[in-house]
Design goal:
Bound molecules: fe (ii) ion
Strand order of the largest sheet: 3-1-6-5
Number of strands: 6
Shape: elongated
Strand content: 5-15%
Helix content: 55-70%
Distance between the termini: 79 Å
Structural class: alpha+beta
Number of helices: 16
Largest sheet: 4 strands, antiparallel
């Protein structure tokens, strides 16, 4: 094989390696270092450096070989020098060429020549100088041939593109991070606003202080127990906070009646789920189906609920969760006309109404979450805290919950076998 063909093949090989290096997503400094070594090796050069700049100012050394580390400490580039590089030709890159009109070379010729640098080539991408490649002479002592120049220029262009791409990726990552932060902030604002609304709903109803907040938390706990993803869990919590928002349009005297309300008042109060739906519908929620969960939180599996009298499979699972959380809180908190019920009584109610009012799977999940707190399996005792001291105490509570779970799961299996 002719030596010139061999050299050509070698150069092509080096360019291919360089292309791969630059396209890789690995460490940026490592990429530049390897690229420079490929360049030095291809032309057999003793020394070289790659420096980058983003506009006029100091030059940042990315990779250096065979030169003193301090070389670029006091080297910078100004606007006129950048313009000259953009307009320059091949002869301008030679440090030895004293007649060169390149102002950067004029300014640093002595310093660079003293270090044995012979060529200074700009890396130009999209009409901008992204940095410089500085090269020493050939190890053989020969002059650079025109082939050498072509190879050098091709490789320098490659490295320049690599640096440019890296910068674009960095900018992109920065913007993505900024967007993520803004999104998080927006979500936090949304959550705070929702909680403020929940507090407003609860203030209107002076007997059920903190009800919406608790329904939000119970709903979240149930959804978590059902194995929902983080986003859906957040969504159901929001739905819990807002489920009674429709009460804002119901007469305060009906909500706060210190006695059981009559049929007319009751029908007025029963408008709140549909009213809540109307209030929530125009809002662009970051979670799915929030208005529907508010609308259907008083529906029952047996079709005896309101506002639409839906049956089991027609009721969204989210609404079933909020419904149980809502009823559970109503049973376990004092009302003006009655004291709260004992936990044994609540379990009895859940057993009787599973499959009629409540979805058994949802009841099982809630019972499991409570049982985990009683047995100490749960790290936090959030339900216990909401129910207040002593409410869940008693040896029989764990057994009652375990029995309820076993019974409801048994029923589910029977149902599944029948289908
Ligand atoms: Fe309600």
């Amino acid at each position: 094989m002719e030596p010139s063909t061999q050299k050509l093949i070698h150069t092509f090989g080096a360019l291919a390696d360089l292309g791969q290096e630059i396209a890789g997503t690995g460490d940026f400094n490592e990429m530049v270092r390897t690229s420079m070594h490929l360049l030095l090796g291809t032309i057999a050069l003793r020394r070289g450096a790659v420096v980058e700049c983003s506009g006029p100012g100091p030059l940042r050394c990315v990779s250096i070989w065979g030169l003193g580390d301090q070389l670029f400490n006091d080297v910078d580039i100004n606007e006129a020098e950048m313009k000259a590089f953009l307009a320059g030709d091949v002869s301008d890159s030679s440090v030895k060429n004293e007649s060169s009109s390149n102002p950067f070379l004029t300014r640093y010729r002595k310093t660079l020549a003293a270090e044995g640098i012979e060529l200074v080539l700009p890396m130009i991408v999209r009409g901008e100088v992204t940095g410089l490649v500085l090269l020493g002479g050939k190890a053989s002592g020969e002059e650079f041939s025109s082939d050498d120049f072509e190879t050098i220029h091709a490789m320098v262009r490659h490295i320049g593109v690599g640096i440019h791409t890296h910068r674009l990726l960095e900018q992109l990552a920065q913007r993505a991070e900024e967007n993520r932060r803004l999104y998080d902030e927006l979500r936090a604002i949304y959550r705070d606003t929702v909680r403020a609304f929940a507090a407003a709903i609860d203030i209107k109803d002076k007997y059920t202080q903190g009800h919406s907040e608790r329904v939000g938390r119970y709903s979240e706990i149930i959804a978590r127990e059902l194995g929902w993803g983080e986003d859906e869990v957040e969504g159901i919590q929001i739905a819990g906070y807002l489920h009674d928002i429709g009460k804002l349009v119901v007469d305060r005297n009906i909500i706060n009646a210190p006695y059981r309300i009559d049929a007319k008042q009751s029908s007025e109060l029963n408008k709140h789920p549909a009213a809540g739906y109307e209030i929530l519908l125009p809002i662009n929620h970051p979670y799915a189906d929030i208005p529907l969960m508010a609308k259907y939180h008083h529906e029952r599996l047996d079709g005896r609920g309101y506002p639409d009298g839906l049956v089991d499979e027609q009721i969204p699972i989210g609404a079933k969760i909020v419904s149980l959380a809502d009823s559970f809180d109503a049973m376990t908190t004092d009302r003006p006309y009655r004291r709260r019920r004992s936990f044994e009584d609540v379990i009895r109610d859940l057993r009787q109404n599973s499959g009629k009012q409540f979805d058994s799977k949802v009841v099982v999940a809630f019972a499991r979450a409570i049982l985990k707190e009683i047995t100490g399996e749960a790290k936090e005792r959030r339900i216990t805290k909401m129910l207040g001291k002593g409410y869940l105490d008693g040896d029989q509570m764990a057994t009652l919950l375990a029995d309820l779970i076993a019974e409801l799961e048994g029923n589910q299996e029977v149902c599944a076998a029948r289908q």
